[in-house]
Amino acid sequence: MSINATLFVQAVVFLLLVLFTMKFVWPPIAKALDERAQKIAAGLAAAEKAKAELASANQRVEQELQASRTETSNRLADAERRAQQIIEEAKARATEEANKIVAAARDEAEQQSVRAREVLREQVATLAVKGAEQILRKEVDANVHADLLNRLKTEL
């Protein structure tokens, strides 16, 4: 055989091989490559979507944390205001109770003072009668002179 014939036969065999490959081998490979490219694209899209969702979730978490901090500070402020109000109420009640105790003590002191005056009047009247008795050197009848003694008590 000659080189030309061999070259021609090799070219025909190569063309048949290329046609066979293009008809039967290349479509499944191209299909597999396309499917793989679609899977990669879908994976990248899912990753981007997950990244966006993560950013959104982080933002929501940050908002919730801020709301929680605000609510906590509001509750603390309310608790402090309530504590101050309770303290003020307790002070007012204590002042009121102290005023009542002072008033009761004043009333008691006044009553004791009145009782002491009465006792003192009785003692002064008795002493006056004894003094008059000694001056007159005779006994004075207290029942007879009760009116006189009562007037003397009121004057004292």
TrEMBL record:
<comment type="subunit">
    <text>F-type ATPases have 2 components, F(1) - the catalytic core - and F(0) - the membrane proton channel. F(1) has five subunits: alpha(3), beta(3), gamma(1), delta(1), epsilon(1). F(0) has four main subunits: a(1), b(2) and c(10-14). The alpha and beta chains form an alternating ring which encloses part of the gamma chain. F(1) is attached to F(0) by a central stalk formed by the gamma and epsilon chains, while a peripheral stalk is formed by the delta and b chains.</text>
</comment>
<dbReference type="GO" id="GO:0046961">
    <property type="term" value="F:proton-transporting ATPase activity, rotational mechanism"/>
</dbReference>
<dbReference type="Pfam" id="PF00430">
    <property type="entry name" value="ATP-synt_B"/>
</dbReference>
<dbReference type="InterPro" id="IPR002146">
    <property type="entry name" value="ATP_synth_b/b'su_bac/chlpt"/>
</dbReference>
<dbReference type="InterPro" id="IPR050059">
    <property type="entry name" value="ATP_synthase_B_chain"/>
</dbReference>
<dbReference type="GO" id="GO:0045259">
    <property type="term" value="C:proton-transporting ATP synthase complex"/>
</dbReference>
<keyword id="KW-0375">Hydrogen ion transport</keyword>
<dbReference type="InterPro" id="IPR028987">
    <property type="entry name" value="ATP_synth_B-like_membr_sf"/>
</dbReference>
<keyword id="KW-1003">Cell membrane</keyword>
<comment type="function">
    <text>Component of the F(0) channel, it forms part of the peripheral stalk, linking F(1) to F(0). The b'-subunit is a diverged and duplicated form of b found in plants and photosynthetic bacteria.</text>
</comment>
<keyword id="KW-0138">CF(0)</keyword>
<keyword id="KW-0472">Membrane</keyword>
<dbReference type="GO" id="GO:0012505">
    <property type="term" value="C:endomembrane system"/>
</dbReference>
<protein>
    <recommendedName>
        <fullName>ATP synthase subunit b</fullName>
    </recommendedName>
</protein>
<comment type="function">
    <text>F(1)F(0) ATP synthase produces ATP from ADP in the presence of a proton or sodium gradient. F-type ATPases consist of two structural domains, F(1) containing the extramembraneous catalytic core and F(0) containing the membrane proton channel, linked together by a central stalk and a peripheral stalk. During catalysis, ATP synthesis in the catalytic domain of F(1) is coupled via a rotary mechanism of the central stalk subunits to proton translocation.</text>
</comment>
<keyword id="KW-0813">Transport</keyword>
<keyword id="KW-0066">ATP synthesis</keyword>
<dbReference type="GO" id="GO:0005886">
    <property type="term" value="C:plasma membrane"/>
</dbReference>
<comment type="similarity">
    <text>Belongs to the ATPase B chain family.</text>
</comment>
<comment type="subunit">
    <text>F-type ATPases have 2 components, F(1) - the catalytic core - and F(0) - the membrane proton channel. F(1) has five subunits: alpha(3), beta(3), gamma(1), delta(1), epsilon(1). F(0) has three main subunits: a(1), b(2) and c(10-14). The alpha and beta chains form an alternating ring which encloses part of the gamma chain. F(1) is attached to F(0) by a central stalk formed by the gamma and epsilon chains, while a peripheral stalk is formed by the delta and b chains.</text>
</comment>
<dbReference type="InterPro" id="IPR005864">
    <property type="entry name" value="ATP_synth_F0_bsu_bac"/>
</dbReference>
<keyword id="KW-0812">Transmembrane</keyword>
<keyword id="KW-1133">Transmembrane helix</keyword>
<keyword id="KW-0406">Ion transport</keyword>
<dbReference type="GO" id="GO:0046933">
    <property type="term" value="F:proton-transporting ATP synthase activity, rotational mechanism"/>
</dbReference>
